[in-house]
Structures are given as structure tokens and as C-alpha cells.
Amino acid sequence: MKKLRIIILLIEPPLPFGNAAARWFYVLLKGLVERGHDVSAFATCSKENEIEKASKLFPKPEFDLRLFPMRTSSTLTQKVTSFIKPFSFKISDALQRDLDRELEKGFDILHVEQLWGGWSAQKVTSKTLMNIHHFQSIDLEFTHNKTLREKYEKWQILRTENKLTRDFPFIRSCSPRLEAFSKEINPSAMVETIPVGMDDSLYEYIKDEDRGVDPTIVMIGTMTWYPTSSAAVRLLERLWPEIKKQVPNAKLKIVGYDARSVLKEYLNLEGVEVFENVPEIEPYFKMGSVFVYAPGRGSGMKIKILEAMLFGIPVVTTSEGSEGLPVIDGVHAGLCEDDEGLIERTVALLKDKEKQNKQRLKGRELVSSFCGAKATLDQLETVYTKMTEKI
Question: CB within 8 A of 181, min separation 6: which ones?
Fold first, then answer.
């Protein structure tokens, strides 16, 4: 395709093993530059130690990656602005000034990752592709907020998602569900679905001899995100007791950001270990016979499920967990909505190594073909072309 001048705004630095979205940011920036586009990327960083990591991965002059610490304190004026524009605090004044200067020089596409970044693109919405990874409007629909603060925060989230989704005529979602939800809010927008891109070369398929010997369930994810914490509680309270009855020597390992804090009341359950804020996740995937992630609610593609499949860990999940993936039950993953079916699929896998090996191979093949860097970037360039024809 025609080579474009593309400016990207990222809500985290592009790191192959940073936060969940950072996996895609890494594929995005690396891939667009390799394809010959003229790219400048601006990233806000919640962890200052990740600035150095990203700088080394994307050195100048090959890459134009500009990294800015997230604002940690606010003046009274900034607090008022945050009330009017919720979550805009994530973008520092320095980043916004630098971004505005670059936009004034001219560009073909401004590519913004996740809705909160939309506050920085209000002057150029007609040339912006807004990328939506999930809607908290969906994730939090059935949550009950007890305090006034919780109710206020939820209200701010819902009104902001609706406002920013309506602002942009070009939207990229990562699943058909998000596409439909976006069109409900903004019927006039061009909305295209492209799955989250993953660099499968970073995930070495775990050999059978390197996997744990004991039947072990693993679940990995950020426990401060409601879909993941709710999936962990469901696993601990409703699935694990029956699995343990049927497979007495089974073990359960839950790993994630703030996991021990969020799940503190479950730390003493028999056969259960909870690990938080670990430096690397691959060793915990290697321990797993089965990866169980069964949220009742949670929009968007689940990065840890994609990673489990790429590492070669059999997955048991719900339609919410497998959103955006064309999963076939019993082929790529165990897929079921009710507790009984989830328990049945998990126990069957724990007891059958051959079944595990068939499913884990098919799971990796699916993610590599459907979410691979080439497939997703090809689709993205097609969307860019459609945009430039309409602008």
C-alpha cells in the first residue's frame, strides 16, 4: 500500500511483556516501521523503569518513540480538567505539547490506542483511528457499587466511554461484540474489527517434557481488573472444590498483579497457591496442565488466554473469555458457560495428557494464524486505506 505518515498515541510503552495491551503496541510499532511507514509514536508510561526498556527495544534513529511518565500529581486546574475530561490525567502536559507540535507538521493518520487517549485527539477526530480494546460499560454492567465514590467513578466511566466513542468517525474494535456495541453508540462511524496482534515468535511452545508433572491448574491475570478478579473468585469458590474432589492430587496456582491482596481470603485453601507481581510469567505457564479462565463478564480479547495458547497450555474458558477468537469447543479450548461443564472439561484434561497435547497444539495454531503480526497488520493497513479514501 501507499506509505503513510502515521502518528501513534499509546497508553503504555510498547513492550513484548509489559501490560496486556503493550503486547499489541510492540507488534504495531515494530510492524508499521518495518513496512516502510513514517511513524512517530507517543507513549505515556505508568512505570518509569519501563521507559528505559522501551527505549532500548526501539532505538533512534530507526524508531521515533517518545516516552513520557504518567502524571502523578495534579494542580487544582488539572483536577478541574480531569472532572470535565475524565482520565485525561494519564496524558502529561509535556506529551500533549509534543504531540500537538507533531500533528501541526502534517500527517495522514493519527492512531489512538484505547478511548482515554481520545481526549488528546479532539482537534483532529476526522483523521483519527480510535482503537477500542474493551468497554467498561459492558464489564461493569452488573456490578453493584456501595459507596458514593464507587458510584461516581462508574458514572464517569460510562459517560466518558459514550462521549469519546461518539466523537470519532473511524473506529477499530478487536471483536465483533465491540464492533456492534460501538455502532450502537455511534451509528454513523466506520467500525472495523481486527483481532489483537501477537508476536508468536516470542512464545516458545513448551515441550511436553518441560511441563509440570502434577495435575495443575493455572490462572494468570491482573487481579485489579474486574473480569479477571471475578474469574478468579469463581474458580476458587465454585469450580476448584469439585475439581479437587475428582482429582485429589490436583494443585491450583493463581498469579497476577495484586493477586494476594485481592484474593486474601482464599490464601489458605488446600492445594492453592497465590503469587503476585512476579517478574516473569513463563515459569508459571510451564507449571500448568490446564489454564482456567472463566469470567462471567468481560469484553474484548483476553491477552492471557492468547498467551496460554501460544505457550501451549490447554485452555478452559467461557464465551466471554474467548471473545474475538473463533474457538471450537474440544478442539482449540474447552468452552462452556456453566460451572458443571467447566469442571467436566477441566477434569477431563487433567486426567488425559494426550487430550492436553491435541488441544494445546490446535490452540497455538489458531492464535498464530488468527492473531499473528502479519495477519493483523495486513488488516490494519486495509483500514488505513479506507480511511484515506474517505478523508
Answer: 135, 137, 138, 173, 299
Distance (Å, whole) CA 359 – CA 376: 24
Quote the cell numbers at residue 28. 504495531
Element (H, E) at 42: strand 38-45
pLDDT digits 0-9 by tens, 260-312: 999 999 999 999 999 999 988 999 999 999 999 999 899 999 999 999 999 99
Cβ neighbours of residue 310 under 8 Å, at least 6 residues apart?
198, 200, 203, 205, 364, 367, 368
Beta bridge partners of 334: 316
User: How far apart are the C-alpha atoms of 131 and 36, rounded to whole Å?
Assistant: 21
Whether 129 and 170 have beta carbons less than 8 Å apart is answered as yes
Percent of the chain with pLDDT over 70: 98
Strands 216-220 and 334-335: unpaired
Domains of the chain and CATH, by start: 5-197+372-390 (3.40.50.2000), 201-370 (3.40.50.2000)
Which pLDDT value is given to residue 70? 86
Q: Is residue 66 a contact partner of residue 40, using CB atoms and an 8 Å limit?
A: yes
Separation between Cα atoms, residue 276 and residue 263, nearest integer Å = 10
Residue with cell 482464599: 266
- C-alpha cell, 306: 492468547
**Residues 38-58, mean pLDDT to the nearest whole number:** 94
DSSP string, 119-137: GGGGGGGGGEEEEE---HH
Length of the chain equals 391
Residue 373 one-letter amino acid: A
pLDDT tens sequence across 159-191: 999 999 999 999 999 999 999 999 999 999 999
Res. 83: pLDDT tops 80: no
* Averaged pLDDT, 102-112: 98
At residue 212, does pLDDT exceed 90? no
